[in-house]
User: What shape does this take?
Amino acid sequence: MKKLLVQLDTDAQSSLFDTVVAYDGGADHVVSYPAITPENVGGLVEGAIFTRGPKDKKNTALFIGGGNLAAGEALMQAVQQRFFGKFRVSVMLDSNGANTTAAACVAWLVRDRSVAGKRAVVLGGTGPVGQRVAVMLSQAGAQVAITGRQLARTEQVCLAIRERFGYSVEAVEAPGLAERGEVICGAQIVVSTGASGVAMLSENQWQGLPGLELLADANASPPLGIAGIDMMDRATQRHGILTFGPLGFGALKLALHRECISCLFESNDMVLDAREIFERASHKVNFL
Assistant: This one.
């Protein structure tokens, strides 16, 4: 029986990236539906859960994507509310690639080391990847703060993280380079997840900073958000600090994405979101 992945995209156009990775992950056929909302997803879920017998339901799975993480989370909730009893299929959420990207980044940061009790700052953390990095660092035991240009928006994001995942994350307003340089003082871990083309830190702001141990940048479009590191950095020593560039952990991101797709077809009741994907990344990174 064919392995069918139903791609539910909250954007007006389905993601070709997600479709390609779905095939590379083992799907025999991918059916993409754009502009999906909690209001119009019901019929698609019913089509997925009612068409195959109990032993064959594992061959149908749902993937929720799109650029808006909040919309993806709402869609995920609506999809799961349609499941009942054995009438369910496996589902994965990876809006904007946030779960797999963040999981790959944090998995490298915690590889062979503990971050429990350490202070971590996620620069530009109000976006999808930043939010998930904050969740996963918290899951690993770090004390996390995220920065944003507007305090109200940043506090709103922190509240959403606490309500959904149970982690307390500090909100810090840091609209410019000077403010971000101040925020990272005293941090052991700094991750930049700002928008493409935005300089989040200059090199002289972090080089030689007392106590700083780990530095990562998730921006894969030049210029990097953190000056002085390289896209290919993977636990590279720079100024006595271990640095990680977006392409350095990008290989794990892609491998993880493919593996998660493959795992969806192992049963009909798997749910892959931030916690589950991070656990898989933490295991997988040990074999790279």
Remarks:
- The domain at 4-97+252-287 is CATH 3.40.50.10280 (Rossmann fold).
- The longest strand covers residues 4-9.
